[in-house]
Design goal:
- GO terms for molecular function: DNA-binding transcription factor activity; transcription cis-regulatory region binding.
- The chain is built from 10 helices and no strands.
- By secondary structure, the chain is mainly α.
- The protein folds into 2 domains: 55 residues, Homeodomain-like (Arc Repressor Mutant, subunit A); 149 residues, Orthogonal Bundle (Tetracycline Repressor, domain 2), CATH 1.10.357.10.
- Helix 5 runs antiparallel to helix 8 and helix 9 packs antiparallel against helix 10.
Length: 210
């Protein structure tokens, strides 16, 4: 391995170490309470080393969020070969919940941690592309379902429908993350809850067939 390649690998390794430490601290202490020096202390590096990778705290949080969104989207895009839009929605619900319960720290940071407002330019970079944005991908599948005549909603209802589905399954994931280990509830299997919730939601969404 050459010197240049080794240095690049070391740089990438340190960048990942910074991201992992920052994610943990952001979740535990909140974005506003955390400083770059606090993150540097966590990984036992100087603050200068952090700034050589990320110019400020906002850019670090954006990098973490973008990486976690990509990981979630990749798990959803594994369903791309399913032709039936309704079945794709059902499998998507399972994949979303599976990501959340398997990667609780990433999920907390993306969906359960208050984040700073981004500029319009940054928001456009992070959102709206079905290849990178899970919400845009759900909108795409719902549009397919409506155009195939499977759902009784119109395309004007896409955001309402997507946000209703999202709210339902986010509630399931956040409840599992927060209280899933509590013994005072006899929790049923997560997959069973996903199926039951999807069937109940689907009853109101499906177009009547003659």
């Amino acid at each position: 391995m050459g010197i240049t390649e080794r240095r690049q690998r070391e740089k990438e390794a340190l960048s990942q170490k910074i991201i992992d430490a920052a994610r943990e601290i952001f979740i535990r202490e909140g974005y506003n309470a955390v400083t770059m020096r606090r993150i540097a202390d966590k990984i036992e590096y100087s603050a200068t080393a952090i700034y050589s990778h990320f110019k400020d705290k906002d850019s670090l949080l954006r990098a973490i969020t973008a990486a976690d969104f990509r990981a979630m989207t990749e798990s959803l895009h594994e369903l791309g070969n399913v032709s039936d839009p309704i079945e794709k929605l059902r499998l998507m619900a399972h994949a979303y919940v599976e990501f959340g319960v398997t990667h609780p720290n990433q999920y907390r940071l993306i969906f359960m941690t208050r984040q700073p407002h981004y500029s319009t330019r940054v928001a456009e970079e992070l959102h709206g592309d079905p290849e990178q944005d899970p919400y845009a991908w759900v909108i795409h599948i719902l549009k397919e379902s409506i155009r195939a005549g499977n759902l009784k909603c119109s395309e004007q209802d896409l955001d309402l429908l997507a946000q209703t589905l999202w709210s339902a399954f986010h509630g399931l994931v956040s409840l599992h993350i927060s209280l899933g280990e509590e013994p005072w509830v006899e929790w049923t299997p997560v997959k069973a809850r996903v199926d039951a919730m999807f069937e109940m939601l689907l009853t109101g969404m499906l177009a009547r067939r003659g």
